[in-house]
Amino acid sequence: MPAGQAAPDAGSGLGRAQTLVSFAMAYNWAYDGLSTEQRDWIESKISNGLNQYTAQALSHPNIGFQANNSNWNGVVAGAHIMTLIAMGLENERRFDFQRSRELLRTHLASFGDRGWTQEGNYYFGLSMDYLFPAMLALRQIGDPHVEPSFASRRPHHIIMYAGMFNAGQNSLTWGVGGDTLPSGGMTSALLSLVPDGEKGYYRWFYDRYRGIENPAPAANKYDHHAGGTIYALIGYPQNIPAADPQGFLPSVIHDNRGGYVMRSGWQGLQDTVVSLWTDIGAYDRSWNQLDAGQINILSHGAKWGYGPGPATSGLDTTFSQILVNGLARTTSGTGSAIEHRVAPMGGYAIANGGSKFSNLGVSQAIRHVLTDFSPTNFSIISTFDRLRSNQANTYAWNLFMPGKTVTVGTDSANDVDYFLSVDPNGAYLKAWFIVHGNGFITENQSTRYAYDAADVDIWVVMVTGTGTPPEISVSGSGLNATVTIGNSVLTYNGATDRIQSSTLTDLNTSTQPSFTATPNRGLAPLTVSFNASAVASTGEVLSYTWDFGDGTGASGATAAHTFTTEGTHLVTLSVQDGMGGSDIVTREIFVGNREPTARITTSATTVLPGASVSLDGSTSTDPENDALTYHWSLGDGRTMVGQSIQAVWTTEGVYTVELRVQDSAGNSNAARTNIRIENLPPVSNFSFDSLGGFVPFSVNF
């Protein structure tokens, strides 16, 4: 622990989070062996630490800012909840406990529906290393309020698609990403948190990514940093057999905030993983790396197309995307998802570069990615970029490939330029540029192929594998070319505006499942009718499987179920199309007393020091019309109780006032508003009775 952060009542948010949890858990585990004096001393330190934590870390500007997207929320709220539960203080400090519980729920809502987060695979783990254990602690005391929100984000899905089964345990990069998923215990804690119906699939992944079948030395397995090994020992699903995710999880997934990931399977080092990020939405007070249009490639134990790394790197060449006049981004911008299609052995995805590229002067930047995993010894990856602008630009197709040996050249037999990148482990990636450009630039561990034009279409065909790359045959040129690799023939189809492969004939649209639940909330026993819909391509017969989140399920497009246990139940619908395509969708059903809604009205938002402000919570409501209690936090450490209060601040500044209302069942909700206290400068004014005259003259002021 850094100097000055050795006690739970000292240090910053993360430092205090670490020490608070460590003190509290050690106290919990060692309680019976401690003397009364030792217990009193530890309790006093933790109590003081909790008071300061509430006043400082839980009042940080990142808290409650734009959907609580910042990892700060998961870290401080998760640590707070674990500390309170370890100390047995969740009832004594119920107000603070419920506030942190709500923060975790809103923080989870900022994630995509497959677990993607703007802050990337590294900071994703920093947050989850606290959030996951907090949910396990909540589960231990029977608190159901957060876990369904977590389950609906399905973070284990993006982890299962992102992880590589090599000794380095590498992963896809996104956001402010690193080379691997963090090993602070996140992937091991998930062993207990993945829904029962998917535990066997996650165990299969975990065994190969961090567990017994990973080729790393024994000391480097099982999330060997922080608490990972402990979570693995406690949560490993011994009684659930490992099950190959192929067939359950499709070859392509779409995260509704992040983009697309395609995976050939979950077998071993021969797996190929390709991502196309869209980066939909960018929040302030959160790290953001402008991922739109980037690709990552993992294959045969090697990694190509890394993300840019920390946001402060400043190197545009570390973005594996199209560069415009040497730039990957300006100051902001997001993209959007267009379409994806699924096949048993490959897929297709299209993304729009959106405002990220329009800020670079490009009116249209559309990227297509095709993957064909059908060849036995290699994988085919093809990109197609359509770029349009009102001015001439230098576009560069760029791939960031640190640690690789790269050679460039021209395949004279086929009249195409190519590069060959070789990893030290013997894996290769070879790329042919079917549309001619200006040639290659290799610098900063990136390889770029440039085009000078206002409008250009760039078609690239790549293969990855080990050993010797296959030869290709190209007839025709540009978008009229026919490219043959082994048994696969690739062409551009102008009618559909798509790249197509002759061995990927079973591409079909995602089933796009959805369902209605009537009613979706109410008191127990609650009978809910479910009605599903999905999209079928020609010749497909869809099948529907329901998991009601309480150990029961059903099949068919319609179903009904009676929920008898109070709490939030996560209902999952899985749809298969019979041709290798599948997808799932989830919804929450709430059984029991619903939480109220807090609302604040104020007599003023800017006043002088010492002036009184009326704060009124009477417009707060409760769905069951329960009587409410009103708890106010005035933003300076003071608290008050009552439906309406008068508050006075004597020191200038901006104070965040929070009203938390609680119903008779213990449900609570909070609203916040800012009160500005400032001493306004005086305004001078005077009058006079003459503008001038002959001297001498008099003027009265």
Write a structural description.
This protein has 701 residues and is of the alpha+beta class. 20% of the residues lie in helices and 33% in strands. The chain contains 11 helices and 38 strands. The strands form 8 sheets. Strands 12-13-14-17-10-9-8-7-22 form a 9-stranded antiparallel sheet. The radius of gyration is 29 Å and the shape is globular. The protein starts with 12 loop residues before the first helix and ends in a 24-residue tail after the last strand. The model is unreliable at 1-9 (pLDDT under 50).
Summarize the helices and strands and which ones pair or pack.
Elements: H1 13-30, H2 36-55, H3 71-87, H4 94-109, H5 120-140, H6 147-153, H7 155-162, H8 186-193, H9 199-209, H10 228-235, E1 252-255, E2 259-263, E3 272-277, E4 295-299, E5 302-304, E6 322-324, E7 336-343, E8 346-352, H11 354-358, E9 362-372, E10 378-389, E11 393-400, E12 405-411, E13 416-422, E14 427-433, E15 439-443, E16 446-453, E17 456-466, E18 472-475, E19 482-485, E20 488-493, E21 498-501, E22 508-509, E23 514-518, E24 521-522, E25 526-533, E26 543-547, E27 553-555, E28 558-563, E29 567-576, E30 582-591, E31 601-602, E32 606-607, E33 612-616, E34 629-633, E35 639-641, E36 644-648, E37 653-662, E38 668-677
Parallel strand pairs: 24-30, 32-38
Antiparallel strand pairs: 1-2, 2-3, 3-4, 4-5, 6-11, 7-8, 7-22, 8-9, 9-10, 10-17, 11-16, 12-13, 13-14, 14-17, 15-16, 18-19, 19-20, 20-21, 23-25, 25-28, 26-27, 26-29, 29-30, 31-33, 33-36, 34-35, 34-37, 37-38
